[in-house]
Design a protein that fits this description.
Radius of gyration: 15 Å
Distance between the termini: 41 Å
Helix content: 40-55%
Strand order of the largest sheet: 2-1-3-4
Strand content: 15-25%
Order of helices and strands: HEHHEHEHEHEHE
Shape: globular
CATH architecture: 3-Layer(aba) Sandwich
CATH topology: Rossmann fold
Structural class: alpha/beta
């Protein structure tokens, strides 16, 4: 599956697996951490992950949210990742319940996702800890973490000194 860019690719993946979805996870396509730490959450929600730019949401994404009959939209990351303008446009155009999971840093955002998961689902008591400074390790472990109900916590290289 592919598209002309990462945003179109995420739409193609969604189109291949979902005709309707009560939940949808929206993450920034401009950097990787928020999208990667959202993979186990998306699995728990049986939800697709769509990517967007920071400052605007495409009509294609808005129309897809309506078509899927999404009730709950999970924005991963703060306004530095996905702007308030995008959130306001989604509220106005789609009438969905929006839950924003975020922290001041990517590390705090991964913790916010983990806390949400532990508060709302019966979760495995294990977690994955991986670097928030590069994406290779988190890409490799994301499918396993999702399958085993393990949130992904991002850390910087100095956490375990």
């Amino acid at each position: 599956m592919y598209g002309n860019d990462r945003y179109k690719t995420s739409m193609e993946i969604l189109n291949s697996g979902w005709e309707t979805s009560k939940n949808l996870v929206l993450a920034s396509g401009e950097d990787y951490p928020d999208a990667l730490c959202s993979v186990p959450l998306a699995k728990k929600l049986s939800a697709p992950v769509l990517l967007t730019t920071k400052s605007e949401i495409s009509n294609e994404v808005i129309n897809k949210i309506i078509q899927l009959k999404v009730e709950n939209l999970f924005i991963i990351g703060g306004e530095g990742s996905i702007s308030k303008n995008v959130e306001d446009t989604l509220k106005r155009e789609t009438n969905v319940n929006i839950v924003r999971l975020f922290g001041i840093t990517r590390y705090e955002t991964s913790m916010a996702v983990a806390k949400y998961m532990y508060s709302n689902f019966n979760m495995n008591k294990e977690i994955v800890v991986t670097s928030g400074l590069g994406f290779a390790d988190s890409i490799s472990v994301a499918p396993i973490a999702a399958q085993k109900d393990m949130p992904i916590l991002l850390t910087d290289k100095y956490l375990f000194r």
